[in-house]
Amino acid sequence: MKKGLMTQFPYARGRAFVCKNIGDYIQSVATRQFIDHVDEYIEQEEADKYFPEDKQKIRLIMNGWFQWRSENWPPSEYIYPLLISMHISPLKAGHLLTPEGISFLKRYSPVGCRDYYTQNLLEAHGIPAYFSACMTLTLGKKYRVPDNQHKGVCVVDPYFEIPPAKSGIKNFVKAVFAFLRHMPGVLKLGRKEFFRVYSPSGFLDRSRSRLRPYYKAALFLDTYSKKFDVNMLLNAKYITHWLDVDMSGSTKNDDLLNYAESLVRTYASAGLVITSRIHAGLPCLAMDTPVVFIENREVVADDGRFNVPGRLGGLLDFFRRLVLEDGLFTTEDEVFKNIDKFGEHTLFKNKNNWRPYAKTLADKASSFMSDTD
Fold it and tell me: Do residues 263 and 26 make contact, with C-beta atoms less than 8 angstroms apart?
């Protein structure tokens, strides 16, 4: 049987560029670890259209977020899937859980679910399911580096509030004072591409204002300097998982996989990662990179703007977390309670409760892909 790798190239909708979350491809990098050779890429959003000329079935680990083009569900009969680390979006659940969709899921059950929401949803429809967590927890299989090679700090899509600049005199005054308090740092950070494009509410910031990056940098630095060393923040590497994909044909799956892998290697060698992105945080756990997960109502709530509803149930428990609300950090984590301010040399270890899930995921993926039937 052939072996495939599931990818999630953006659906163009007739546009020249499409904004893409590279976290989808980080999940593909994780599954690729278990495939000795990839015969074909299978597009998740078009898996129903897979009809090989030789009519030979293909093994496919199906994980990730399902799915925008729900009219293309369920997949082709020529796909033999391992259903694991799946999230079924509540935005599309009604379209995916048709009689045909339910039959497909039952046929290849039990379904490994990336979150509790998906597990409960499937079980409510009579589909055997369990919480598997995310395939990115296995990235340590290939990408972990020795402890003495962890250096530097990465800040990856951290949540912080960015009220509209013209939303009122109070916010305007707050931004002005933040700028004055941190002027040298704001001028340094504001020149970074990250602060031009980053938006905590999702996708990329399209504003062409030359002042907006400095506005965002001032708000970020004013907030995060309360809990993180300023010099560390000024010298950190800033990364967003959102990128524009050229839909003219010049960007290929391999380009996105290579970029995703480069991010995985960056996180693997970092000394500390600060993030509100699960597909930055979970790989860090897998690769023993210390990670501070920034939680906020907008990040975790079912109606929050930062994440699609239902994505994080069960996964958040793997992280040591800081909660950011109204510009202040708090924590219930017993380790973080003892850290007044994080610096580049602050020492702590991640939780270990994710490790049994990572082992089960790796065992299932290895067994599935090594089967010769």
Answer: yes
Look-up: residue for tokens 């950090």? 329
Q: Same domain for 15 and 90?
A: yes
Is residue 117 domain-shared with residue 258, that is, in the same domain?
no
Same domain, 152 and 300: yes
* Helix or strand (DSSP H, E) at 237: strand 237-239
What is the token pair recorded at 222? 């004013």
The single-letter DSSP state of residue 198 is: B
The CA distance from 9 to 25, in Å, is 9
Distance, CA of 76 to CA of 94 (rounded, Å): 20
Residue 124 CB partners (closer than 8 Å, separation 6+): none
Beta bridge partners of 243: 20
Prediction pTM value? 0.94
Residues 130 and 163 in one domain: no
CA distance 63 to 27: 8
> What's the total number of domains in the chain?
2
Structural domain that includes position 255? 142-353
pLDDT (tens place) for every residue of the chain, 373 residues total: 999 999 998 876 667 788 889 999 999 999 999 999 999 999 999 999 999 999 999 999 999 999 888 899 999 999 999 999 999 988 889 999 999 999 999 999 999 999 999 999 999 999 999 999 999 999 999 999 999 999 999 999 999 988 876 666 777 788 888 888 999 999 999 999 999 999 877 788 888 899 999 999 999 999 999 999 999 999 999 999 999 888 888 889 999 999 999 999 999 999 999 999 999 999 999 999 999 999 987 666 554 444 555 678 899 999 999 999 989 999 999 999 999 999 988 999 999 999 999 999 999 999 999 976 6
Report yes or no: 115 and 282 within 8 Å, Cβ to Cβ: no
Q: Looking at the structure, do residues 22 and 155 belong to the same domain, yes or no?
A: no
What letter does residue 68 receive in the DSSP assignment? S
Greatest alpha-carbon pair distance for the chain in Å reads 68
For residues 173 and 315, membership in a common domain is answered with: yes
| Inter-CA distances, 220 with 50, 100, 182, Å | 46, 48, 10
